[in-house]
Design goal:
This protein is mainly alpha-helical and 101 residues long. It has a domain of 62 residues. The chain is 60% helix and 0% strand. The protein contains 2 helices and no strands. Helix 1 packs antiparallel against helix 2. The longest helix has 42 residues. It is rod-shaped. The protein starts with 6 loop residues before the first helix and ends in a 30-residue tail after the last helix. The relative contact order is 0.12.
Amino acid sequence: MKKFRNVPALITLLAGFVTSVLMIINRIPIVTFLWTLALVMVGFFFVGLLVRFILNKFFQEKDDENKYNNDNPEEGEENADNMDGAEETSGEETSDSEGVQ
Protein backbone atom coordinates (compact mmCIF):
# COMPACT_ATOMS: atom_id res chain seq x y z
CA MET A 1 0.00 0.00 0.00
CA LYS A 2 1.19 3.45 -0.77
CA LYS A 3 -0.84 4.90 2.09
CA PHE A 4 1.90 4.49 4.68
CA ARG A 5 5.06 4.83 2.60
CA ASN A 6 6.07 8.08 4.36
CA VAL A 7 5.74 6.77 7.92
CA PRO A 8 9.41 5.76 8.36
CA ALA A 9 10.61 9.14 7.11
CA LEU A 10 8.22 11.03 9.38
CA ILE A 11 9.20 9.03 12.45
CA THR A 12 12.90 9.43 11.64
CA LEU A 13 12.64 13.18 11.14
CA LEU A 14 10.62 13.65 14.31
CA ALA A 15 13.15 11.65 16.35
CA GLY A 16 16.01 13.61 14.79
CA PHE A 17 14.34 16.92 15.60
CA VAL A 18 13.68 15.99 19.23
CA THR A 19 17.23 14.67 19.64
CA SER A 20 18.72 17.81 18.09
CA VAL A 21 16.73 20.14 20.32
CA LEU A 22 17.61 18.23 23.48
CA MET A 23 21.29 18.05 22.59
CA ILE A 24 21.48 21.75 21.71
CA ILE A 25 19.81 22.68 25.00
CA ASN A 26 22.31 20.48 26.91
CA ARG A 27 25.29 21.90 24.92
CA ILE A 28 26.65 18.51 23.83
CA PRO A 29 29.96 18.64 21.86
CA ILE A 30 29.50 18.52 18.07
CA VAL A 31 31.18 15.13 17.45
CA THR A 32 29.08 13.43 20.12
CA PHE A 33 26.04 15.31 18.82
CA LEU A 34 26.52 14.03 15.26
CA TRP A 35 27.20 10.41 16.23
CA THR A 36 24.22 10.33 18.57
CA LEU A 37 21.98 11.97 16.00
CA ALA A 38 23.04 9.50 13.29
CA LEU A 39 22.44 6.49 15.54
CA VAL A 40 19.06 7.79 16.71
CA MET A 41 17.92 8.45 13.14
CA VAL A 42 19.02 5.00 11.89
CA GLY A 43 17.36 3.32 14.85
CA PHE A 44 14.09 5.18 14.43
CA PHE A 45 14.12 4.55 10.68
CA PHE A 46 13.95 0.82 11.42
CA VAL A 47 11.22 1.46 13.99
CA GLY A 48 9.32 3.35 11.27
CA LEU A 49 9.71 0.43 8.86
CA LEU A 50 8.27 -1.88 11.50
CA VAL A 51 5.34 0.48 12.13
CA ARG A 52 4.67 0.73 8.37
CA PHE A 53 4.71 -3.07 8.05
CA ILE A 54 2.22 -3.45 10.93
CA LEU A 55 -0.10 -0.75 9.53
CA ASN A 56 -0.02 -2.30 6.05
CA LYS A 57 -0.88 -5.75 7.44
CA PHE A 58 -3.69 -4.38 9.60
CA PHE A 59 -5.33 -2.37 6.82
CA GLN A 60 -4.77 -5.13 4.24
CA GLU A 61 -6.72 -7.52 6.48
CA LYS A 62 -9.50 -4.93 6.86
CA ASP A 63 -9.63 -4.43 3.09
CA ASP A 64 -9.74 -8.19 2.53
CA GLU A 65 -12.63 -8.53 5.01
CA ASN A 66 -14.55 -5.71 3.33
CA LYS A 67 -13.94 -7.20 -0.11
CA TYR A 68 -15.12 -10.62 1.08
CA ASN A 69 -18.25 -9.14 2.69
CA ASN A 70 -19.08 -7.17 -0.47
CA ASP A 71 -18.60 -10.22 -2.71
CA ASN A 72 -20.69 -12.54 -0.53
CA PRO A 73 -23.63 -10.65 0.98
CA GLU A 74 -25.57 -12.47 3.67
CA GLU A 75 -29.00 -13.90 2.83
CA GLY A 76 -30.90 -11.46 5.02
CA GLU A 77 -29.50 -8.35 3.39
CA GLU A 78 -31.44 -6.55 0.68
CA ASN A 79 -29.95 -5.20 -2.49
CA ALA A 80 -29.09 -1.51 -2.05
CA ASP A 81 -30.63 -0.67 -5.44
CA ASN A 82 -33.95 -2.21 -4.42
CA MET A 83 -34.40 -0.46 -1.06
CA ASP A 84 -37.58 1.42 -2.08
CA GLY A 85 -39.59 -1.77 -2.50
CA ALA A 86 -40.12 -1.35 -6.25
CA GLU A 87 -40.10 -4.45 -8.35
CA GLU A 88 -37.12 -5.05 -10.58
CA THR A 89 -37.61 -5.06 -14.32
CA SER A 90 -36.21 -7.97 -16.26
CA GLY A 91 -34.55 -5.86 -18.92
CA GLU A 92 -36.65 -7.43 -21.67
CA GLU A 93 -39.12 -4.60 -21.54
CA THR A 94 -38.16 -1.62 -23.59
CA SER A 95 -39.52 1.86 -23.54
CA ASP A 96 -41.58 3.15 -26.45
CA SER A 97 -38.80 5.48 -27.54
CA GLU A 98 -36.38 2.62 -28.14
CA GLY A 99 -36.55 1.12 -31.59
CA VAL A 100 -38.70 3.98 -32.93
CA GLN A 101 -36.90 6.08 -35.47
